[in-house]
Automatic annotation (TrEMBL):
<keyword id="KW-1133">Transmembrane helix</keyword>
<keyword id="KW-0472">Membrane</keyword>
<dbReference type="InterPro" id="IPR013780">
    <property type="entry name" value="Glyco_hydro_b"/>
</dbReference>
<keyword id="KW-0326">Glycosidase</keyword>
<dbReference type="Pfam" id="PF01055">
    <property type="entry name" value="Glyco_hydro_31_2nd"/>
</dbReference>
<dbReference type="GO" id="GO:0004553">
    <property type="term" value="F:hydrolase activity, hydrolyzing O-glycosyl compounds"/>
</dbReference>
<dbReference type="Pfam" id="PF21365">
    <property type="entry name" value="Glyco_hydro_31_3rd"/>
</dbReference>
<dbReference type="InterPro" id="IPR050985">
    <property type="entry name" value="Alpha-glycosidase_related"/>
</dbReference>
<keyword id="KW-0812">Transmembrane</keyword>
<feature type="domain" description="Glycoside hydrolase family 31 TIM barrel">
    <location>
        <begin position="292"/>
        <end position="580"/>
    </location>
</feature>
<feature type="domain" description="Glycosyl hydrolase family 31 C-terminal">
    <location>
        <begin position="597"/>
        <end position="681"/>
    </location>
</feature>
<dbReference type="InterPro" id="IPR048395">
    <property type="entry name" value="Glyco_hydro_31_C"/>
</dbReference>
<comment type="similarity">
    <text>Belongs to the glycosyl hydrolase 31 family.</text>
</comment>
<feature type="transmembrane region" description="Helical">
    <location>
        <begin position="21"/>
        <end position="39"/>
    </location>
</feature>
<dbReference type="InterPro" id="IPR017853">
    <property type="entry name" value="GH"/>
</dbReference>
<protein>
    <submittedName>
        <fullName>Uncharacterized protein</fullName>
    </submittedName>
</protein>
<dbReference type="GO" id="GO:0005975">
    <property type="term" value="P:carbohydrate metabolic process"/>
</dbReference>
Amino acid sequence: MVKCLQHILTHSKMLPSRGPLMFILLVLSGTCVPSTALLGRNVDDLLQFWSDAQTKATSSGLEILFKNNATSKTSLLAGWLAHGKVTTDMVACELPGELKDQGQCLEWTNGWRVESFWKNLGRLNTVTGLQCSTVHWRPPQDGAGQETPEDCYNMTGFYWFGGFESSSQVWPINTFQANSSAFITGDTYQSFMYGGVLEGMFLSSSGVGIYVDETTPLYLSVNQAGSHMLCLKGKVGANTPFFNVPQAFLKYDICKAANLLELWRGVSEVYLPKPAVVPSSDVLRHPVWTTWASYKENINDSTVLEFAEDVLKNNFSISQLEIDDRWTPHYGDFVFDNQTFSGAANLIKNLTQKGIVTTVWMHPFLNTDSNAFRELSAKGYLIQELNSSRPHVVTWWRGSAGVIDVTNPDAVKWYLEKVKALRDAYNVTSFKFDAGEISWIGGPYKLSNQLAHPNYLTRTYIEMTFLADTDQRRQEVRVGYRSQASTLMVRMLDRQSDWSNTLGLKTLIPCALVFGFMGYPYVLPDMIGGNAYGPNPDSELFVRWLQATVFMPVLQFSITPWSYNATVLELTGKYIRLHEQYADKIVDLADHAQKTGEPINRPLWWLDPEDTTALQLDSEFLLGDDLLVAPVLEQGARSRDIYLPKGQWRDELRGRVVQGGAWIRNYPASLEELPYFTKIG
């Protein structure tokens, strides 16, 4: 292998003054054979990655260091191809077909081969400055390839931002820890490492990042056993979610731009779909009120009407009222229960007359005791067992059920007809769509139309929900996978009513930032105060939670402010009005997001991607580019430290102008106060 690397070094000297470009490509693939086709091209016409690289064969894999220049002591990206594998049993190979002259290939004696080739971005390279190359592990030709070699990249020295929701959401992901797990949409309440909103997109503050091909059967580990590494491999087999993929492969792009912000913009432009539409401006301006946290499943005509009347009696605005679980006689029979909602049509008519829009809770499950389960079983509209026509019965949080097969156009038509019937019969306006994670589907199953990746089932479910309300666009989901174009509001997974870093208050800002990072700008930060699965939140937690979400796109209440004292009631009105005061700005940013994909709530490094302090902050955020929010997130705290990026900022609580690029230590913030600042220069 040493001779191989010396051979590469020799040929790299054949290049023009910007020749290290060619060297990088050869090193990335690990080949000993320079590409004469590339050697003969004008280097200026190629996408130049890094101006220098160092590599060596080790017992831990092919180590690669990418640097800005030959004298730099800091690597922009350090990693190992085939981490943990011996690198002496490699030979050069030839790229297939049209890629033959576009890159390099290296094959291990066990049949695994890794290919590297330039990704032609055309005009986008000029516009965004983005430069990318593809790494592709292909399986042995004998078919005996269920797990690829693992590629690992060191996160040390830079801040990394990754594309997944999790129960212990962190920003950046350097301190996150996860063993190698299937990168499928999961409900973290089921102890899945990765949540319901995923994007194989991992960008670092060095300006270098990784984007994983969406069809890769990816297993991802982050900082496993304190390794400080991001590790990728492809894995298939009967005991994996990728049971129907015949052979493993791993394909991803390594991209570089001038800095993290330009990297995000370039990667977003190349890989992420943009939202097709914007949610109703009504839900961006005024709070959503939902029955769930206050009433759980103990709802009926009277409780819903009382809830709505209390909202109005306390002079709170309302964009829509959600009737959550449980309004149906059986889960899957999408009609109102005549026992608890005997006057559902009149109830919703009454709410409509009061100016209240009504939405209801929906899901993809049809419990085995429902009429719909029997009907759809006979029609073949449910996901089926792998080798039979019997329904694939799953266990979810409300019992045993079949799951609508959203790959079957007839099943989708049936579901949407039920949605339309609800709208026609009861004047329901829109829907809260729950679940959609692959983790609820469980073991091997059969679909009407096979999908290239299990996460596509999540995406197809979202595409169906997108069609459920094409008039007012008030629907919400809680999952996402390459579904930015078909998604409106994306709700965070149920939050716990506590101050913790595990689904508690401290996870709100990191989760909102991650959603926006992944291309989902219309963030619904679940219910103010959490879901109250234990005791209700105390008044301090309720108020601080409200303050943390005021400048997010949507406010959502369920725990009732009037169940606290007069101070809480007054503060709730104050902060609802503050949200409404900035509603025009939020709506404008929502329109901008639809055009550009840019988040509404942005990390502080959006203003300066070289600011190492801003890169670390997970307790402050921006609304657009000029409003900084720093809520108090610690129990009992009446002050906090606040960092302001460079520039001049107007302190909206104190009315003074503050010079940025520095900390304000021990900024006082009573329970009544939310610190926020406007950038004025």
